[in-house]
Amino acid sequence: MNNGVLNLLIGGEAGQGLVTIGQLMAKSLVRAGYSIVVTQSYQSRIRGGHNTFAIRVSPKEIHASQEEVDLLIALNEETVELHRKHLSPGGLIIIDESLNAANDKSLRVPFNELGSSRSINIIALGIAGSLLGLDAKLVEHAVDDFFGHKHPENVQENRKALANSFKWCAAKEITGFHLPGISNPAERLMMNGNEAIALGALSAGLKFYSFYPMTPSTSIALTLAAHAQRMGVAVEQAEDEIAVINMALGASFAGALSMVGTSGGGFALMTEGVSLSAMTETPVVIVVSQRPGPATGLPTRTAQGDLEFVLHAGHGEFPRAVFSPGSVEECFHLTRAALYLSQECQGPVIILTDQFLADSYRAVPPFDVEKLASVNTECEADLTASPYERYADTGNGVSPRHIPGLTENLVVADSDEHTTDGHLTEDLTSAKKMIDKRLRKLDLIRREVIPPERWGDEKPDLLLVTWGSSKGAAIEAAGRLGAEGMNVSALHFSQVWPLVSQHFLSTLEGAGEVVCVEGNATGQLARLIRRETGFLIEKQVHRYDGLPLTAEFIIHELSS
Amino acid sequence: MNNGVLNLLIGGEAGQGLVTIGQLMAKSLVRAGYSIVVTQSYQSRIRGGHNTFAIRVSPKEIHASQEEVDLLIALNEETVELHRKHLSPGGLIIIDESLNAANDKSLRVPFNELGSSRSINIIALGIAGSLLGLDAKLVEHAVDDFFGHKHPENVQENRKALANSFKWCAAKEITGFHLPGISNPAERLMMNGNEAIALGALSAGLKFYSFYPMTPSTSIALTLAAHAQRMGVAVEQAEDEIAVINMALGASFAGALSMVGTSGGGFALMTEGVSLSAMTETPVVIVVSQRPGPATGLPTRTAQGDLEFVLHAGHGEFPRAVFSPGSVEECFHLTRAALYLSQECQGPVIILTDQFLADSYRAVPPFDVEKLASVNTECEADLTASPYERYADTGNGVSPRHIPGLTENLVVADSDEHTTDGHLTEDLTSAKKMIDKRLRKLDLIRREVIPPERWGDEKPDLLLVTWGSSKGAAIEAAGRLGAEGMNVSALHFSQVWPLVSQHFLSTLEGAGEVVCVEGNATGQLARLIRRETGFLIEKQVHRYDGLPLTAEFIIHELSS
Amino acid sequence: MVTINDYGQFETAWCPGCGNHSILQAVKKALTGLSIEPHEVLFISGIGQAAKAPHYLRANVFNGLHGRSLPVATGAKTSNPDLAVIVESGDGCNYGEGGNHFLAAIRRNVDITVLVHNNQVYGLTKGQASPTTSRGVITKAQPEGALSKPFNPLSVAVAMGASFAARGFSGDVNQLALLIQEAVANPGFSLVDILHPCVSFNKINTFAWYKERCQPLPPEYDPRDWEAAIKTACQWGDQIPTGIIYRSSDQPTFGQFLPFLSKGPLARQGVDRTALKEVMSSFR
Amino acid sequence: MVTINDYGQFETAWCPGCGNHSILQAVKKALTGLSIEPHEVLFISGIGQAAKAPHYLRANVFNGLHGRSLPVATGAKTSNPDLAVIVESGDGCNYGEGGNHFLAAIRRNVDITVLVHNNQVYGLTKGQASPTTSRGVITKAQPEGALSKPFNPLSVAVAMGASFAARGFSGDVNQLALLIQEAVANPGFSLVDILHPCVSFNKINTFAWYKERCQPLPPEYDPRDWEAAIKTACQWGDQIPTGIIYRSSDQPTFGQFLPFLSKGPLARQGVDRTALKEVMSSFR
Ligand SMILES: Cc1ncc(C[n+]2csc(CCOP(=O)(O)OP(=O)(O)O)c2C)c(N)n1
Ligand SMILES: Cc1ncc(C[n+]2csc(CCOP(=O)(O)OP(=O)(O)O)c2C)c(N)n1
Ligand code: SF4
Ligand code: SF4
Ligand SMILES: [Mg+2]
Ligand SMILES: [Mg+2]
Questions:
Q1: ipTM of this model?
Q2: Gap between the Cα atoms of A505 and B347, Å rounded
Q3: Residue identifier of the C-alpha nearest atom 25 of ligand 1
Q4: Residue B306 at interface with chain A, using a CB cutoff of 8 Å
Q5: CB-CB under 8 Å, C273 with A370
Q6: D47 CB under 6 A from ligand 2?
Q7: What is the pTM of this model?
Q8: pLDDT, tens digit, for every residue of C176-235?
Q9: Dihedral-angle region of residue B294 (phi above 0 means left; psi in -120 to 50 means alpha; beta otherwise)
Q10: In which band, very low, low, confident or very high, does the pLDDT at A385 lie, cut at 50, 70 and 90?
Q11: Superfamily per CATH, domain D4-255
Q12: Alpha carbon of A74: minimum distance to chain D alpha carbons (Å)
């Protein structure tokens, strides 16, 4: 444990229920007022194999995961084998005493004395809760809330096992893992990046979401589906990703605020639709949750390898925006921003997230529902010249948008090049005008770009540049190096397109050395920055083994 | 007529047969020894509308089309209206005397005196042939060859009409359009860019071609289909473009040299397959014949708008090569190079052409069939370690490739991340190794890059940079400006990826001013050059109205 | 009252003699017959000669990608159940590029009408074989003849128990208009496969060819009899039955599963903040 | 002689109790029975639990994209007609993402065998409805129940006159092995839809559920009788027929239209320079 920051890792086979332990522990910690960063690592299988659920916890705000493990809850022997090397000097392994993992660092727990075989997860939770010094009642509430409505018959049994475990563990008097107490914790929500995207969308007035299952994007759909009837949102699993995007465009054209979600391979199938969105000027938000490619790659791991792909996807030339949230809260707010912008610029807007962030639970301050405006898809009625022309050629390129059937105006959209009234044309002069009109919208998008955010000095000796989910790792690395006496800052892009050089070029130029930190093998943001500004970031840190960037990784790479 | 260069434009409705006149005229000119550049312009409809077939002809080599028209063969009145403004000072309109286009520049021809209504095209051909001073017999042969086997019953009627037209026109004694004669013309072939791609592929040993019809790529398939049985090539129209690329990958995996062709929208549907090609290391050549987008855009016009799209298509990171032929001959040779390279680097190779080049007939010196090596898809038998591993980790990243069924080695390919034996793995260390192995192949591709070609001084005052089909226009513009006393060079990229800065950076830096000339609205090659070299090409000429670049256009833009 | 003039009269880019002209006529007639006003209908089409049809009448139009009209229609109808949603596209669009959506749309049973202009050829791209081209038919792309067995959309639709499956012929505008009316009125997925000549590229299935073969189903034919329907659907040759081949309107439509659609177009439903707060608090 | 050991024995990533284990057994048995050696067979699969199957035996393998095995198989078989080409993938792969290829493959009648591991659910992505999930079945992605009518692959295959269409059940390995043998031996497109339990995500169509319902067709059943076949194909409920439901092996295969395939694998055919010269001279 470092400065009250502790990393707990639960490991075992798929199907052993380690996610349940993890979620309950995370929930308890959040309710107790701690900051958490969850890192889930799993394989593309349903039973067996080796999965982990890591919770990094701290009384102060933290934003990244950690590789070193303080508490290892090993649900099988393999977990010990695989993770022993990550154990911190004072670290402890929690393991069923019947398992063979002889190690002086282990706390051997008599699982079958503390509860039935059904309660193994609860026992593990109890032991860990006790070690961390959590209030037993708080943990019990979390368990009740979780299982209560699903399995009311087990409530008593669970409570019993939990109490036993707390008691057994307390008797061991191991105090090195007690977290600093927090009094009167403020209320926070616990959610992961995908849930935050779903909630952000619901709050903005999402009315249509289509998808085809694909890890790590599926949980956006599951979250929306769970609340769809209540919120009046059509959530439809389509026959394929081509249908996904075309359905969403149909729904959007007919006035529903629309979004889709997928991962790289599914997005590949949508690229023709991205171009269609641009051509017909039909808004759509596309969430691309990255995993390592090419092709099927490592379907359950994380990566930041699709920036250039989403940026250039679709034939022909047209404006777009690409957001890249760096935290769960940003997932919420940038999804709202993306939906808003898609309507404003009447075209495709992309949210680029990844498996790490998608599955990473965090504590988030509650959102003020009353203050969250929702997005309107219709233009003001009086904005209409007569006869109504869907593609009226305006100064900023945005034409007043009516919704078919909601007024008597006829709304005509066309995938061919068209005249202002939406009907296809082969007149090359008007074709060129339409291209210009559409491209003008980039200025509008540019004006609303979210500038990259800087942590640390304006003119540091070392500047770490990141985008997307690597934000926390870079900030923390900067902080740690700072603590060692270096002058290090971090610059994070939560919007990677368009890039407005006035926002950041002077920062790059002002830094002693600039290092771009990305979750890919070739340095895509660095290349993009050079393309847009001429600024060459020679030194780069790449991680592309399927795991998220961490401060440890960055610092290690910088020193090698 | 300028320096013996003459531009003949035939205009009329779709269905009037203007392509037949054009092809016959082009054939006659090629056989007579002239250099030609054909520009076809047509609409996305089968009857009616307004189409043109322009032949620029010269006794010396020419490489680009021309906007000014010397001889306008108007098959209807609309043609005169639309193209009168393009007529050169001494230009002439050839038109049926029954049509209303009173103009002192017109030669009013009594079509129905010279032949039957079936022979209108032949008459137009005869008149034009006579005006150009072509040998009547040579034109007659071209007509016989063309119609002979299809409509033997019409041979006499055609000959009659042709003779009448030559005679009628000769009597008019119009000599201003006579082309300089060429004695003992060398034999050349007449073909357009798509035909050259098909022939290049056949000569390299193409064995499988799948496609889904899409203008302007379809004629590659038609050319191949016409010769498929004779050449032993499977040419299959698939159910959609996704099937197209996956079929080709299946065929390639099983040993057939494979290629596909499409345009932007169809390519969009193939992007997942591009990534699959890279991951499974299965060679495939993808011809993308550009037309203006986004979406359906202008389906029968030309553009250079998909460079960035094809360069970044597919999720994940992997090497590829992108060729961009600048002439019909380059279409032939670069297709061969692409097929060769796809096998060598075992992955996707793209040929980026466009409607202009696809449909542009030119005179091409015959290829020496004996000297054209064909491509082998199998590795040497003795290259095999035992047990055979499809993805053996080699120094240059290329693993020996066996073909399933042809030896007793088992060949295992996988779209998931895999071990060297091709079976899926979730081991992150070997995953990273595989990514590195695949990316190493970029070095190999880089070593074989075709450097850009320069015309003119090494250190000019003005350097025009182009890629793909705009080559001829840039060279000609440079030449014309040179003739006016400026020191202008042209630099053409017939391979746009990878870019090797040593090949061209000094040329860029040595030029007084650099202008990038592209058939798109945003300057994609210029951006790419900046990304790869840091060199900013500020001045750019963009054409994106669906028409090909010409020297006139470039010079006009430069001076404005 | 809605008259046929409300739907306008436009110049088309079709060849003279093309069956598309008659189909356009029948569509206008059907809509007039149903008293649907132009702003109440949304046409969705793909790319092809057939898919240009919606440009030649007054209505709301989304002319999307080749092969993708069905998902667009599904999204649009779900977004605004008050719209009459009609897909108009070719055999290539619906049974070739869009084949997967055809299967899914039948299963999903969204209340839309699909008019397939089936000329048994790819018209706009100049005459390649389409999924409905007969085996052996020679084209420039298939110089040895089309190699695949032709697709019979009606037998598949009936086998899958589509809500409504009919065949029309452009040469019988009156019958066709009635079929379209029935299709639009049918609650659920309604397919009208419309045979029509392509004078430029289909030299086999000409107007005369169809005229000779197309025979309206007799009045006593019962489209609710599945066994009769599957046999009728498979008939193709000297006699080609036209009319409503199958209907089973009693199955639930997609929209019925989304009760909130009864509150009208999604565009105007806004955000229920009480519900949103509840959702938020489930993350506490 | 080929023995089952030639096909190896591997650890799998499937759940204990999953029907995939039995299907794998049946496949090995069938190949052994056909005396096909591992290097003579090429397995092609997509992505899903089922699609992992080829990794668990010794053979040539192309494990491609989700939903895209049929076109890969088409290309491979055309490229080397000597290979026995077998597609192995799930219901999601073949009837969901790959639905259009399913239709095209039946029509094209390439001589390949398609084994669909049909667990009526998306297994690998954790239990969403698949095209064969019954209407109303509740999943996390379909909390109000699956809204679409389920896809019956056999009724569509029979309606389209597929060359060979059978249904197997993982609980009857002997019958299944025989069906696979027949399918591989059949010249043309052969479908074996194989029902199997997914113990992790399909709590409705369990082993017992299938066991109770699956009934082999009686010996007197004639799979060449189309009318009987289309009715049999549609049977689903208390009784689910298994066996060869339809066959019409007399139709031409795709390969028969490409005479040069008789010269063996395309990889070794080289370039006929005389022919190439002729082609070149047609451009003079
Ligand atoms: C993705 C994609 N692939 C191919 C095309 C080219 N294309 C345009 S229309 C068409 C065929 C149209 O045939 P059909 O749907 O039967 O319509 P028809 O012209 O016969 O009415 C094709 C292949 C396209 N526009 N988009
Ligand atoms: C283009 C694409 N979309 C989605 C996925 C995610 N995906 C992987 S397997 C699968 C479903 C598998 O279901 P099924 O084919 O029935 O196989 P099962 O796992 O049930 O055996 C999906 C949707 C993918 N890999 N690729
Ligand atoms: S090509 Fe055929 S389908 Fe197209 S307009 Fe002409 S006749 Fe009609
Ligand atoms: S999830 Fe289902 S299909 Fe997948 S291995 Fe487990 S039981 Fe089999
Ligand atoms: Mg058609
Ligand atoms: Mg399944």
A1: 0.98
A2: 37
A3: C66
A4: yes
A5: yes
A6: yes
A7: 0.98
A8: 999 999 999 999 999 999 999 999 999 999 999 999 999 999 999 999 999 999 999 999
A9: beta
A10: low
A11: Thiamin diphosphate (ThDP)-binding fold, Pyr/PP domains (3.40.50.970)
A12: 21
